[in-house]
């Protein structure tokens, strides 16, 4: 189609095609006939050029005072504020979640930009007394070098900015590869960086599939890697990174539980479950995928969730009144549909949904009905594996202790929620649930940009994004000793008699 745009990579401040000249398509998952554009199918050669450009830019950028780097991030936030609705519209067209959600995605990026600006004036080290006389001890932060950023498609602007903004604020330069399912959103983000005056080479964009990501992982001059995606891909690239001693931060899958106890406000719980399980079509790493509910309120809550879920309007997210968009692609549709067979075989009941959604303008998209599985037990695959779709598995429990045990009985540990009126239970959940995030009387989703974000077990590898903690990932600590005694002072020796 002659009027379909062809987009490019951004390397060293220039928009360029892939070395191979090959491209791939991005299509609207709600209307497959709507072609968003053609994007470069990049490979190792493109990555090598981008890394070279990032290395070249590193020295001048690391020597730019951090508050100055922060001023550029302020401009980034200002431009994103101006373009918020426009960028959100493009994101919805490309990855499907409704416009009100993609606006939230851009807002999170704006918040992250302004937070990064303030960090330009507070990249603190520590000043600590020395054990010797006339000696001064402190730590300072140094940037690491070239950082490779590889992201998933479901938060195609917010999640890349969780990585890119702290990375460049700290004085690093980056090579960013968005998901092949959201290349246009990644491109719009990089365009903002260019327009805000980020110097050439500081942010480089490489479009493409897993092979382009793998080339970033394998490049010997990429000093740090930050990855958001599936636990399978994360495990593979963590091994590759370890072999060449690269620093790596991993944010991966989830199987997030919401516990609802018999003393909970059921209206509140129902609202949180609808938003947590069916918002973003269940395609959030923090989506509520398990409802662990006390037997005394099980039937009533299931009934209420079912009634409310039936009111959700599916459709193209840029149309007014749409609550839930499509799944991202055919593979996701096949995966979620396949889990319906798994649920039946394992003995669960499909109490609601369970089918591809069709009719009413949905046939050209990857829509799936909001689904509720009841009679689920903790050993079933639908209680243990990440489905990444609008599917809520309901597990009945008899006590709070059992609820915690079931909540922890999965390989993942990202987000979690507890609905209760009992303050003791609330604090026990904060202490005992194995997850990076616990919400009390709120859904499993709702991260704020200035708070730490990340998970335990198969969800993460100990690092956090968001807030102040992410700056520890993007900086190296240098320990500095300044001896002004004028003589040799041997620590642990000269300051002890024997
Ligand atoms: P994915 O693992 O298939 O892909 C993620 C990214 O990795 C893409 O850019 C992809 O091109 C790239 N990639 C694939 N193979 C690679 C390789 N061998 N080397 C380097 N890069 C490679 O994941 P997805 O399907 O895009 O995203 C969904 C997953 O992401 C879910 O599991 C979800 O829970 C997770 N996720 C986690 C978080 C979090 O913060 N914990 C946030 C969003 C999504």
SSE topology:
Blueprint: E1 9-11, E2 14-16, E3 23-28, E4 31-40, H1 44-62, H2 66-82, H3 84-95, H4 99-119, E5 127-129, E6 135-143, E7 146-150, H5 158-169, E8 173-177, H6 183-195, E9 203-205, H7 210-218, E10 224-228, H8 231-243, E11 247-251, E12 256-260, H9 266-278, E13 288-294, H10 298-309, H11 330-346, E14 349-352, E15 371-374, E16 391-397, H12 400-408, E17 412-413, E18 417-419, H13 423-432, E19 439-440, E20 456-457, H14 470-473, E21 475-483
Parallel strand pairs: 7-8, 7-10, 8-9, 10-11, 12-13, 12-18, 13-16, 15-16, 18-19
Antiparallel strand pairs: 1-2, 3-4, 5-6, 6-21, 14-15, 17-20
The protein binds nicotinamide-adenine-dinucleotide.
Give a short summary of the structure:
By secondary structure, this protein is of the alpha/beta class. 36% of the residues lie in helices and 20% in strands.
Features:
single chain, 498 residues, alpha/beta, seven-stranded mixed β-sheet, five-stranded parallel β-sheet, 36% helix, binds nicotinamide-adenine-dinucleotide
Task: Give an account of the 3D structure.
This protein is an alpha/beta fold. The protein contains 14 helices and 21 strands. The strands form 6 sheets. Strands 14-15-16-13-12-18-19 form a 7-stranded mixed sheet, with helices on both faces. A 5-stranded parallel sheet has the order 9-8-7-10-11, sandwiched between helices. A 3-stranded antiparallel sheet has the order 5-6-21. The radius of gyration is 24 Å and the shape is globular. The protein binds nicotinamide-adenine-dinucleotide (NAD).
